[in-house]
Design a protein that fits this description.
The chain is an alpha/beta fold. The protein has helices at about 20-30, 45-60, 80-90, 105-120, 130-140, 175-195, 195-205, 215-235, 250-260, 265-285, 285-290, 290-300, 310-325, 350-365, and strands spanning about 5, 15-20, 35-45, 65-70, 100-105, 125-130, 145-150, 150-160, 165, 330-335, 340-345. Bound molecules: glycine.
Amino acid sequence: MPVTTVDLGKRSYSIQVRTNCATKLTAAIGKSCRTDRLFVFYDANLFALHGAEIRKALKARRRELQELVVPSGEKAKSPGVLKKIYGFLLDQKISRDDFILVCGGGVTSDLVGYAAATTLRGIRWGVVPTTLLAMVDAAIGGKTGINHKTGKNLVGAFHQPAFVHCDTRYLHTLPPREFVAGLGEVAKYGGLIGPKMIALTQKYLSSADPHADQPLVRLIHASAAYKAEIVSRDEREGSLRMRLNFGHTFGHAIERATGYGRLRHGEAVVLGLLAAIELSSLVNPRTAKKLRDYREMVISLIRQVKRVEIDEKAVLDAISLDKKRSAAQLKFVLLQGTGKPYFADNINMSQMRKSLRAMLACYKVHGGTDAPYSGRKRA
Ligand code: GLY
């Protein structure tokens, strides 16, 4: 059964991974919704493609829908859009008994989830993630928030949803670059989980049809199950959850250095993963052999990452900024082998530079040499 649970006592919730399954969604809403109305938020792109069918499924239960379409893209995670959401919710006199449903990718769930966390000190909510990245990462674990002019996700709250309902039908219309971005987070789990997850991902990557539902269900379920387990053990990122930042220290710095939006977050993560693999091998040369196949898999994704100029110094400066922000030492998540992550807080500038340089050399040769997945069923 493609269902997994985030185990948080009374706040536990399930993550369903299905195909064409509106009935499970309406059942989940039925369980969570205490009033006869439902507040529904859609990402604008998603609404154009699937709004009518989602609405039809939700209306079948004769519930009154209060709907709002929010802009797509990272810029929507702003105080301005958030203010509009507050205005909408409060004008409709939302109460603590009401329920919010969010349909969209990570930007939408971060943004609306934060509105849910902060309106009336917390409204219950559920998520229908509609991008691969949101299904395997962003929609799970209750991190919500918006961006601030000084950086991404700097204003936020933990607010766990009541359910996460993934349906692979939404991936049929996902733009190719978004697919690659989601696969960046999937590849991250390969490094953290180990050979079984890497084999599953490799099998998926070599399949003829990247939109085939069953392989996607398996990939999403395996990723979600791992994240659910980590969040269940360390909801507030005291320590264990930090391992989900594997590849992200470099990845975030690359996003900042290239200017937010030029690369998708998940694309920057693909590059960050290779840099973290290079760093792991630099710190412990015996690791290189153990990571060889995994490294090859990450490089196969780099072939699909759009080629943009990346300035080495700007990336290192961005990492230094990250370091200044964290009260403790900057921790890198490295691998002793696949499935063997550890934290390293003693990485010096020369090691960072060398591993970054190795990644950039590889990106220069391979980056963008393969077209990202084409959307077989794109509308
Ligand atoms: N995206 C990493 C986390 O949720 O902790």
